[in-house]
Amino acid sequence: MKLMFISDIHGSYTWAKRAIETYQEEKADKLIILGDILYHGPRNDLPDGYNCKRVIALLNPLKKDIIAVRGNCDSEVDQMVLDFPMRSDYALYDVDGHHFFLTHGHLYNEDQLPLLNDNDILVYGHFHKPIAKKKDNIYIINPSSISLPKEGTNSYAIYENHRIVIKDFNQNIVKEITLE
């Protein structure tokens, strides 16, 4: 099973399109969106190519491939236009014997951990910074923001064969970690 994680699209058609093209090139089985899908938020500048309607049209055809959680900039009205569920604060996903806790990061993050067991994987966005590390027997992953990164470049994460790699959109490895 191959998973692709993206976060913090913030309505950028430019970066959503690039992410979907990369998802298809990577031949991932699931696209996991960690919140802040459509709205840019009051603290952010408009991202490159801001066009929520085009982002909706791009994502909805992939509704069977998408697992999404709600970000702090997502609202009930967003669910009215998106064909996949995205209003839960977190989702759980098990693959290859690994337990993934998927969330946006404004409620749960490495400083506010949910109840996890040793070797579980917390995957979140929100902070727009790439992270791949193990802390106190929990894996901490943040793919960063695809549209408004605060550190480095626009990036995403791939899980495959017990390994998580964060890459920029030129396929350069930003961070990586092997899971036990």
Topology summary:
Elements: E1 3-6, H1 13-26, E2 30-33, H2 52-59, E3 66-68, H3 76-81, E4 90-95, E5 98-103, E6 121-123, E7 130-135, E8 138-143, E9 155-160, E10 163-168, E11 173-178
Helix pairs in contact: 1-2
Number of helices: 3
DSSP strand count = 11
- What is the percentage of strand-forming residues? 25-35%
Mean pLDDT: 96
Query: What share of residues is helical?
Result: 10-25%
Taking the sheet with the most strands, its summary is: 6 strands, mixed
- How far apart are the first and last residues' alpha carbons, in Å? 16 Å
Inertia-based shape: globular
Strand order in space, largest sheet: 3-2-1-9-10-11
Report the uncertain regions: none
- Structural class, by secondary structure, is alpha/beta
Order of helices and strands: EHEHEHEEEEEEEE
Any idea what the radius of gyration is? Answer: 15 Å
Q: How would you explain this protein's 3D organization?
A:
By secondary structure, the chain is an alpha/beta fold. It is built from three helices and eleven strands. The chain has helices at 13-26, 52-59, 76-81; strands at residues 3-6, 30-33, 66-68, 90-95, 98-103, 121-123, 130-135, 138-143, 155-160, 163-168, 173-178. Strands 3-2-1-9-10-11 form a six-stranded mixed beta sheet, with helices on one face. Strands 4-5-6-8-7 form a five-stranded mixed beta sheet, with no helix packed on it. The longest helix has 14 residues, at 13-26. It is globular.
